[in-house]
Amino acid sequence: MAVVGYYATLCQGCTIVSGVVNIAAGLALCIFGVITALDKTTRPFGYLYLGYMMVAAGLFVIINSIMNMVGGVRESKGSVKGGLIGTVLAVFLILGVVGYAFMLMGKVEKGGRDAYLKLKDADKVVWEKKLECCGWDDPAKDHSPSCKAKHTCDKPMGKVLKKTAFMRLLIPAAVLIAQAYVLFAVGCYFRKISNVSGPKRDKHLSLAEEARIERAG
């Protein structure tokens, strides 16, 4: 049995649309995650794991979105319920990504020097040329052989790394907002197809067709 009427059809449409929007959000999360993980100059600072977390969360969001769309199109209570639970799990996953990005922003000052020492000389050159600096907190040590700058890299690199973490924070935050819309749409639809009263529906008719028949008759 299922609910018929305009409101049920609207919930079904919102569920399908939310799936499309969420697939795009998941793809964006995956793309930025791959970019973050492949950046060799920020890997020692913990951004490699941030990239992995973004990709994992993005893939989960995409898979869950497909489940929501299938449930919406086929009017499957099981798929919609699974998608609803998956959306809740996605919220916690993305919150974990956001929390880790916040942690990286505060970690630069405490563990920055140790991470800088793990950089290869080629990667140090990239930072030194970009920021015109030498070493982390001593311009006479811990720098590439060709470095000639007079000031250290700790402050300018700290600013860049914090900005990078903040920019990576915006993507999962936007996806998190999208999950709120998904929860509303899927929750509304699940409630409509679960709390049913009235005669059995014709399983060969979609909710939209039943709504049209209801309005006509």
Tell me what you see in this structure.
Helix content is 76%, strand content 0%. The chain has 217 residues and is mainly alpha-helical. Helix 1 (6-38) packs antiparallel against helix 2, helix 1 (6-38) runs antiparallel to helix 5 (154-194) and helix 2 (47-74) packs antiparallel against helix 3. The longest helix is centred in the middle third of the chain and has 41 residues, at 77-117. The chain is rod-shaped. Mean pLDDT is 77; it is low at 197-201.
Short description:
The chain is mainly α. It is built from six helices and no strands. The protein has helices at residues 6-38, 47-74, 77-117, 121-131, 154-194, 207-216.
The count of β-strands is 0
Number of helices: 6
The low-pLDDT segments are: 197-201
Elements, N to C (H/E)? HHHHHH
- Beta content comes to under 5%
Nearest-angstrom radius of gyration?
25 Å
Shape: rod-shaped
Which features would summarize this protein structure in a list?
76% helix, 217 residues, mainly alpha
Give me the secondary-structure topology.
Layout: H1 6-38, H2 47-74, H3 77-117, H4 121-131, H5 154-194, H6 207-216
Helix pairs in contact: 1-2, 1-5, 1-6, 2-3, 2-5, 3-5
